[in-house]
Amino acid sequence: MAVVIDGAEIARRVKERVASGVAELEKEKGVKACLSVILVGDDPASISYVTGKEKALAEAGMADRSVRLPADVSQEELLALIAELNEDDSVHGILVQLPLPGHIDSRKVIMAIKPEKDVDGFHPVNLGNMVIGSRSFLPCTPHGVIKLLREMEIPTDGADVVIVGRSNIVGKPLSILLSRRDYNSTVTLCHTGTRNLADITRRADILIAAVGRPGFITADMVKPGAVIIDVGTTRVPSTATKSGWKLKGDVDFDNVAPKCSYITPVPGGVGPMTICSLMRNTLLAAKRAIYTL
């Protein structure tokens, strides 16, 4: 049976280090690291994610400038709010919770955030700097995956890594990060349309699933002893919970776990690490604003 990676416990340790950095910055410079999370509408999943981020801000001792807007807010109003926060020196990070309502162009919203306040790491400037190895804010979920591997001392040097999922949020940036010299993996980026996908996933030393399809990765797609990182978080109906739903990952956990060496659960795996990376980026943004690092 695989070792189940406790992302919540690793996240707790990382949060402690971030909180120490926040307290030190406030003591030395009188500056409290501050994040503004903007939520548009009342999507239950988005509300849940934002609530988790607000809780993490409080635990880290950061200032919370979260803003909740109605679903019918205009794109112009949202962009005006971002422009205001861009010029507010007391706000070090800005995050707009995705997805946005259909009448708002997410690309324009992301582009509107100053790169030095883009703690989600989605702005093309940050993504471009990440590609060439220059200073940037790393996208939170990919960085969370990297931290999990590092904290568990899972070697990536020379490892055959297969990522299933090519999103701009997870798959693509993670493939770039793991192929950099400091991680030194050989990376194959696949997707649901990849031919003979199981033949490719079965050769992976580290298999990362990020397609958003519950139970997509089955036991026959996994090499014995592989490391399995499940990034998927899909809400599925459940009669066992008060909410009527539960989170399910992209991996068929019960059948895959006996076959691999390490595996992340859903929930409690990558999710907590994503929020940790956001807190780290916000602290880093605050330090850069003061020290011009």
Describe this protein's structure.
With 293 residues, the protein is of the alpha/beta class. 41% of the residues lie in helices and 16% in strands. It contains ten helices and twelve strands. It has helices at residues 7-29, 44-60, 75-86, 106-112, 124-132, 140-151, 171-179, 197-201, 253-256, 270-291, and strands at residues 3-4, 34-40, 63-64, 67-69, 93-96, 160-164, 186-190, 206-209, 227-230, 234-237, 245-248, 262-263. The strands form three sheets. The protein has a six-stranded parallel beta sheet with strand order 1-12-9-8-6-7. Strands 2, 3, 4 and 5 form a four-stranded parallel beta sheet that branches. The protein has a two-stranded antiparallel ribbon with strand order 10-11. α6 (140-151) crosses α10. The radius of gyration is 19 Å and the shape is globular. The relative contact order is 0.16.
Query: Overall pLDDT, averaged?
Result: 95
Poorly predicted residue ranges: none
Q: Tell me the β content.
A: 15-25%
Strand order of the largest sheet: 1-12-9-8-6-7
What is the CA-atom radius of gyration, in angstroms? 19 Å
Largest sheet, if any? 6 strands, parallel
Please tally the β strands and state the result: 12
Kindly state the percentage of residues in helix: 40-55%
**Content-based structural category:** alpha/beta
Straight-line N-to-C gap: 45 Å
Shape verdict: globular
Number of helices: 10
Written as H for each helix and E for each strand, in order along the chain, the element string is EHEHEEHEHHHEHEHEEEEHEH
Multimeric organization: single chain
